[in-house]
Amino acid sequence: MAENQYTHLLYRRQFFYGPQPGGFEGWNVASMPGGNFISSHPSLQVTRKVENGFQVTLIGFILDPVTQGQDNAGILEDLCKASQTIDQFIEATEAYGGRWAMIVSRGDRTIVFNDAAGTRTIYFHFDHENRAWLASQPGLLADRLGFVESDDSQEFRASPEFQKRTEIWWPGDVTPFDEVRALLPNHLLDLNSGEVKRYWPVKPLQKISFEEGTRQAAGMLKGILAAAHARYPMVMSLSSGLDSRTVFAACKDFAREMPVFSMKYRHLTDDSDDIRVPREISQKLGLEFQIFDTTQYQSEEFRQIFNRNVVGLKTDWSNIAECRYANLPADSIVLKGSISEIMRCRYWSVGVYPRKVDLEYIINLMAYVGGRTEFVQNALSNWLVDAQPAEKYSYKLLDLLSWEIEVGRWYSLGQTLFDIAGEDFTAFNCRRFYNTMLGIDPKYRSYPYHAAQREIVRILWPELAEFPYTPSRALPKKTFRDTQFFDLLRSAKKMIRK
Predict the structure, then answer these.
(1) To the nearest whole percent, how much of the chain has pLDDT over 90?
(2) What's the mean pLDDT when you consider all of the chain?
(3) What are the distances in angstroms from CA 209 to CA 214, 437, 443?
(4) Which end of the chain lies in a sparser environment, N or C, as judged by fewer CB atoms within 10 Å?
(5) What backbone phi and psi angles, to 5 degrees, belong to 95?
């Protein structure tokens, strides 16, 4: 493809790791343990630390909600000093936010894992010599190692479900290439043996009261965002919904120093909730606010680079990314209210858990991802076998489905895709925060009111809680049909029909 004015944005904030450097002209290259190399785009932070027998490479940024002024190197030093084994090191990251992946070596063991929601994405391949290759997205590995799209992937993309949906992603840990796999959240990859291991959960979920849980969660969000504010300039993407409001409420102490924006895209107009409500909030609270119209950004040159930037997502986000690139400060962190699905009973939305969750149930839930092709069924079956042991710790399979398969594959790779325009970040991306929220009774976390999140907003910024949340959306009341007894009747009816 001929050079264009956006060529320098190709693979922005991405990385490549392996026995040979695999970056592009202008990328940074550093030697790694075992004779390997990490190549990274100049916009991507890479921090190295050797301490207490550990060699750690941090890709991205990590935030301490307690000691808010610490930088990446200081946090890595604390993690190394507090740990004697790699497993202890991983456990110690529970309290931290940010968007990161880490390659950790100690003794003869080297592993890689990433942040709570896997938002700093990791894809991997082991060659015939059992050498590990890693990258931020599968297309980099395919390009460098000569992989071609699999027959299963082509069948998947040809499915009616894939064709009719605007946004879609790959199920389980599969990718368009047989040779490449995704590292899901809550998993580590041993770079010596090639083994993928679930490292979380390892202990029972602790129940917590509504009052104490929301108080603790609010404090964590406030601390994470204060740490981010101390280190980076930030801008806030604000909608009329509860999720971005929750994040913004935690920014109260410095909100007036931070530009706030909303975007008109797809069907949105000036009268839409997601434009009108943020505008009213900003006017009444005296905030700097802008509205950007993405329909004004339709550059074919930008679209060409955008479509090459990541392999593994189907989206219509090119004009959104171009609009952000054109209007937002280049060095800013973009705050978003994403990945809340993990704590919101995403696949049991009214807070009543189904009587039976098996492969058939999960395939039906995820049918919109790609129908019932064997490719989809095998991927979800493998995930289910891996995830089921988590039930003994009182975690719900459907919460892990949202966490690892939806957020871990769709949203996280979407963040990598948007790296072309700017660094996205959500304060929810902290394992301790999720553990706290999942410990609250589901009736406070579920649709339609999401009372726990509303309470967090009220705790952090009472005036912000007074504005309506997506006021045009009708909120249905729970009914008899939302009980486990009715779920049992539905199951019996299905069995009779079958």
Answers:
(1) 85
(2) 94
(3) 8, 10, 12
(4) C
(5) -80, -5
Residue 4 tokens read as 């264009």
Radius of gyration over alpha carbons of the chain, in Å?
22
Q: Which two tokens stand for residue 353?
A: 């858990």
Q: Which two tokens stand for residue 426?
A: 């959500």
- Measured between alpha carbons, how far is 234 from 8 in angstroms, rounded to an integer? 23
What lies within 8 Å, CB to CB, of 220 at 6+ separation is 65, 97, 430, 432, 433, 436
Show the tokens assigned to 480: 């008899």
Strand-pairing partners, residue 169, are 313
pLDDT tens digits for 66-118? Answer: 998 899 999 999 999 999 999 999 999 999 999 999 999 999 999 999 999 99
Paired tokens of 232: 């980076």
The phi, psi pair for 386, rounded to 5°, reads -70, -35
Distance of CA 484 to the CA centre of its chain: 31
123-126/181-182 β-pairing: antiparallel
CA 271 to chain CA centroid, nearest Å? 30
Per-residue pLDDT of 269-310, as tens digits, reads 999 999 999 999 999 999 999 999 999 999 999 999 999 999
Which of 4, 1, 2, 9 is closest to 326 using CA atoms? 9
Q: Which amino acid is at 215?
A: R
H and E: helices and strands count for the chain: 19, 19
Between helices 210-231 and 451-460, what is the axis angle to 10°?
60
C-alpha distance from residue 287 to each of 257, 304, 334, 467 (Å): 8, 36, 16, 15
For the chain, first and last CA: distance in Å? 54
Q: Which residue, 402, 318, 375, is CA-closest to 118?
A: 402
Other beta carbons within 10 angstroms of residue 328's beta carbon come to 18
Sheet holding 423-425, edge to edge: 289-293, 260-264, 234-237, 333-335, 423-425
Q: Which two tokens mark 418?
A: 């948007």
Q: Is the whole model's pTM more than 0.90, yes or no?
A: yes
Angle, helices 318-327/300-309, rounded to nearest 10 degrees: 110
